[in-house]
Amino acid sequence: MSAKRLQHSRISLAFHALRAGEGRPLLLLHGLGERSPRSVPDEARDWPGPVFALDFTGHGESQVPDGGGYTAELLMGDADAALRELGEATLLGRGLGAYIALLLAGARPESVRGAILCDGLGLAGGGREPGSSSVVFANPGAVSPPDPFALAELARDVRPPDYATAFVRQATQLSGLEQPITVACADRPEWLEAVMKEPGVAEAPAAEALASYASV
After folding, report:
1. Which of 2, 38, 77, 156 is deepest in the core (most CB within 10 A)?
2. CA terminus-to-terminus distance, the chain
3. Domain spanning 4-214, CATH architecture
4. What's the pLDDT score for residue 96?
C-alpha cells in the first residue's frame, strides 16, 4: 500500500497505515536513520485499534530537505502533523522517536493518550550541553535516505534533562491520565533518568504499557 502524504511546512511526509481497525489509533515513531516498519511490530500486535507509522523528515519515503537543519523540534512538528491527521493517538517511539514522543505528549497532552518510550537508535542524543561547533560535510555520494545531514545533526541534538522534564510535567498536568508516559527502555541516558524521577512516569514492557493505554 502506498503511503499517504502529509505536509509539514515545505516537507512532504510519508504516513503509513499498517493495519485498519476501530478505536483509538497507535502511532509508531522510528529511530534515527531508520524508517517506518512495513508491518505491525510484535509488541503492538494486540493493540485493538488501527496502527499507523510516520517517516520523519529525511527518512524513509519522506522528503529530504536541502542543506540539513535538523532538530528534535522539527521532527516533533512532523509527528504533530500525523497527530492532527488522526485526531488523537497513543504513541510508541523507538530511540530518537521515543524522545519525539515525549515532547509531543507534553506539547499536545489532550491528543496524546499515552506515550511509550523504547530503546533504539538516537535515544541518547548529544548530551545535556552543546559540544564544540563544527561544520557538517555530508558525503555527496551517500545513498539517501536517510539524509546524511540528519544522521550527523540529530546524533548531536542537545538533550537538557530539565527541558525533557518540562514536557513531562505538561503531560501529567494536562492529559488527564494518571501516568501519561511509560518508559520501556533498558538504556537510560541522562535526560531519561531525569524523566524517570518525575511523578506520573511509569516503567513497564511495551506490550504491557500498550494494554494499559488501550483501556483508557
Report:
1. 77
2. 30
3. 3-Layer(aba) Sandwich (3.40)
4. 98
